[in-house]
């Protein structure tokens, strides 16, 4: 039942011609989301560690 629906959908010439575009858009969205998440997780400035110079009295 599902296979016959898929075969009918793939036989649709409009969907068949638009499929490469849909695949490209999907890949682009996944790539953009991945890069956004990676950029959000990457610390731009490392956390300063406390050294003996900064822990002393002024």
TrEMBL record:
Top-level taxon: Bacteria
Protein name: Uncharacterized protein
Key words of the record: Membrane, Transmembrane, Transmembrane helix
Spans through the membrane: 21-41
Natural source organism: Roseibium aggregatum
């Amino acid at each position: 039942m599902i296979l016959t629906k898929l075969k009918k959908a793939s036989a649709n010439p409009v969907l068949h011609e638009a499929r490469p575009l849909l695949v490209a858009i999907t890949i682009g969205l996944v790539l953009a989301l991945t890069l956004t998440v990676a950029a959000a997780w990457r610390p731009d400035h490392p956390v300063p560690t406390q050294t003996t110079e900064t822990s002393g009295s002024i």
